[in-house]
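User: Hey, my collaborator sent me this sequence without any context and asked if I could get a structure. I don't really work with proteins. Can you help?
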Amino acid sequence: MFSGIVEEAAPVVALQSEQGNLHLTLECTFTHELKIDQSIAHNGVCLTVVHIDGSRYTVTAIKETLERSNLGGLKVGDKVNLERSMLMNGRLDGHIVQGHVDQTARCTNVEETNGSWYYTFEYPFDKAAAAEGYMTVEKGSVTVNGVSLTVCNSQDNSFQVAIIPYTHEHTNFCQIVPGSIVNIEFDIIGKYLSRMMKYSK
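Assistant: No problem. I've predicted the 3D structure and written it out in structure-token form, which is a compact way to encode the shape of the chain:
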């Protein structure tokens, strides 16, 4: 379980394909605090630490994860948003994030407004999926590349988020441009409510 509050945007230092899997090695400042089998969200995707070497650690993404997320498109040097799992005795500063990416979306516009940025993202609309809660709502929560954000201008197949300077500087939002592919996780509460309403009819 995560909160969508990114701890660090860390560079990819190595990529290794093995059959349908991809081993990703990253370098970050808190590697010395990690242990094997620990869960970390990478651009919002929950992955397990399988190897540690000094300031570097390795995780493995399976084929299904690569098909559903943007991890398969990473290159050495790309920054990845990292968040360790949530402490149960801490504050929930973002929202409840599972680390199970639902799908990808494409950035269609970036607009700077008085020191902040508005990012617009589009994704394929599926009416059946939307009925199950796979959608955004105005002022609701959404996770983009692992960052907990508030939705504005929610449409059937698109939404906007406002990014403050701190988030722009400390996450990989600084690398997102029109055409960039990002991971999105819709709000789990909306999914549960949609499911409950379906069976209460």
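In plain terms: The chain has a mean pLDDT of 94. You can pass these tokens on to your collaborator as they are.
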